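Researcher: Next sequence.
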Amino acid sequence: MRVCVYGAGAVGLGLASCLIKADTQVDIIARPVTVEALKAEGLIRSGLFGDFYAQPEQFGSYCSLNQVAQKGYDFVIVSTKSFDSAAAAKDLSMHKQLLRDDGRIVLFQNGWGNAEKFLEYFKPQQIYSARVITGFSRRAPNEVEITVHADAIHIGSLFRCDVSRTQALCESITKGGIDCRLSESIEKDLWAKMLYNCLLNPTGAILGVHYGRLAEVDCTRRLMNTLAEEVFSVMTTAGYSTYWNCADDFLEVFYGRLVPDTAQHKSSMLQDIMAGKKTEIDALNGAVLALAERYAVPAPHNQAVYELIKFMEVKT
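Model: Next structure:
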């Protein structure tokens, strides 16, 4: 099996490490500084699920799809930031010859609305989505640490396509150290993660604290409770669903299991702001606001945290 990992941030490196450990043939598409480090020093993974080191000759690393000569990828894992989805979709569409006729693209990205960007260039049966609730932290251009893990990776289709077509990828990721399962309800999975992320990611970034601290103080709990109520209202009005019937049911699981399992994790949005990078707020609370406007649903608290993150992006 041949897999291309398109985007070598923390998530991309973490997934690549699993696939390489499972003896999958892997090529990584990354920025020049990352490719240089991977070619010189290999790929290093630490943290949960044990340490792993892949020597440079165990995988391919390239700055561009133009540099890839061998055709026939069974899967392309897209692990770019959500704001790069449109550019990634266009780039991959210009190199369709690298993907097998029955090859699949699997989106390992935050937020809502990524799959639609790929529908402009690919057939629905080629596009799959993944939900990840595992914390990856990039320690160096070629080094990733798995910091927290709340649940197995889920892979499925938003377009009701045959999920068994991604079975081999699931098995390889699982063999490499992170449990990965097929999902017949990936829409529900993604909206469950949207609820989780829209509460914790911007709030943790604005206040500069880890997730556990947000749940310890009454004022931040009240804020997150209200954010959850708004997201739930927008989601259901727009015709989507998840695993809970109301925000209160979700919040019981949120405070009882999800936050404790990731209590020491710091928001990826906070990490981006500290590094002077653009955040994924548009695919998270921004996506909620777009739906709220379309369906005339009030979401003032989501609007507030969205504007604060936008200010922090400009400030940095």
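Model: The chain has a mean pLDDT of 96. The radius of gyration is 19 Å.
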